[in-house]
Amino acid sequence: PSNLENQISNPAAYSLLNNYKFMIVIDINQPNISELLCHELIHNTEFALNKKSKDIFNEWNKYNPEDFSYNDSYTKEYIYDYTINEENKENIYFIDKYSHTYATEDRARIFENICSCNENSIIKNYPNIYKKALYLEEEIYTYYPSLKETNLFSSLK
Fold first, then answer.
1. What radius of gyration do the chain's Cα atoms show?
2. How many alpha carbons fall within 13 Å on the CB side of residue 106?
3. How far is CA 21 from the centre of its chain?
């Protein structure tokens, strides 16, 4: 990492742009390779759209609780919950506390729970996360309409 103050030194995976190519690096010793690949794939998708000056996910924060803000750091203490550990499903907006780090990580945690499932993503169990997932799907289809012909989002149906 370039900044250990807000970045972690041993990620399980990461995405990058190297020599004009989008790349994904995954620690092959991780047990959840499918989830990690999906997670990093959405990061590279966002990188590609940002590189093309596409303004995406403008409405994302509207799907979060009013009092919530992302940590914008991988190392800061988490001050919110709103995760699947909550008992009241109406209070659940995030897969886990890692989703609190950055909006991009929130989307990636949701996407990995869509992309790596063949059917019935756990996201369907949580109304607020499900709304985020549907918004993510809508935005992806806006820029990649040919994906409508695939089963990428079938686990949400």
1. 15
2. 28
3. 21
Q: Report residue 125 as tokens.
A: 């169990």
d(CA 141, CA 138): 5
Q: How many whole angstroms separate alpha carbon 48 and alpha carbon 17?
A: 9
Q: Is 25 helix (H, G, I), strand (E, B) or coil?
A: strand
The pairing of beta strand 13-18 with beta strand 21-26: antiparallel
Which SS3 state, helix, strand or coil, does residue 128 take?
helix
Span 46-74, pLDDT tens digits: 988 988 888 899 999 999 999 999 999 88
- pTM for the whole structure: 0.88
39 CB-near residues (< 8 Å, 6+ apart): 13, 108, 109, 111, 112
